[in-house]
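RECORD TYPE: inverse folding
INPUT: structure tokens
STRUCTURE:
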């Protein structure tokens, strides 16, 4: 078994309204990659968010009283705090320089996933432009998959990823925020190990494992590799959603 991850070439700087499916198909053609059944496309959330127009200029944001309070505690721009509040179900931890939020999609991350790196608006102060996560990453993945499958006539998976920190380890890594056509979790309970012992509690976050591998190739700075073609994903493709990967609040020991 082999797993091959190939960064797609020639992805331009994405702008609101761009057709990502057409851009990805052109890049696949440039790389001489013909899609096969079982292939997966892994996309950095930034290109999806940009295509969907999720850019926000802080100059157009008026902070609420709650946002100003959060800004005082976090030492962050109150306008950014207003956006974080709007994207969050709850603010879990605050200290100067850090806001940990439960995003409205259910996962826990810094700043509700709002980012400034590799973000540029059309006008005004470049420092005022930030990027929100896609409104519905599962839907974004499903729509892209539908277009790619229609063009290729192949059964595919699409994964949208972001970089998140973890409660129990240092450093950020690629994490799934939306998926279509592949499993989020693989339940291995009942599988036999090398000695015939049947696994009792093992479930594998297969989508997150693939997200981490793809993120390693994408990089975090000026690499310009926001789309990865994957061949050899070791589990059967099926319908999947982000909710498979979200730990229920009552089972979250870190909250």
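DESIGNED SEQUENCE:
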């Amino acid at each position: 078994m082999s797993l091959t991850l190939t960064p797609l070439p020639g992805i331009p700087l994405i702008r609101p309204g761009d057709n990502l499916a057409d851009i990805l198909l052109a890049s696949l053609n440039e790389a001489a990659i013909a899609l096969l059944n079982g292939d997966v496309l892994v996309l950095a959330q930034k290109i999806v968010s940009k295509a969907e127009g999720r850019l926000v200029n802080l100059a157009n944001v008026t902070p609420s009283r709650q946002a100003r309070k959060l800004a005082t505690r976090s030492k962050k721009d109150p306008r950014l705090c207003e956006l974080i509040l709007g994207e969050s179900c709850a603010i879990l931890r605050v200290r100067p320089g850090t806001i940990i939020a439960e995003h409205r999609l259910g996962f826990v991350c810094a700043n509700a996933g709002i980012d400034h790196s590799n973000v540029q608006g059309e006008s005004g102060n470049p420092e005022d432009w930030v990027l929100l996560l896609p409104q519905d990453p599962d839907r974004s993945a499903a729509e892209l998959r539908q277009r790619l499958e229609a063009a290729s006539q192949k059964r595919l998976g699409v994964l949208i990823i972001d970089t998140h920190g973890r409660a129990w380890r240092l450093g950020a890594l690629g994490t799934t925020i939306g998926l279509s056509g592949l499993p989020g979790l693989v339940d291995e309970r009942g599988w036999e190990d090398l000695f015939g012992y049947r696994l009792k509690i093992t479930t594998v976050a297969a989508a997150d494992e693939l997200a981490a591998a793809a993120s390693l190739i994408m990089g975090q700075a000026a690499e310009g590799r926001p789309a990865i073609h994957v061949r050899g994903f070791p589990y059967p493709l099926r319908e999947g959603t982000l909710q498979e990967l979200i730990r229920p609040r009552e089972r979250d020991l870190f909250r």
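NOTES: The domain at 4-52+136-245 is CATH 3.30.1330.100 (60s Ribosomal Protein L30; Chain: A;).
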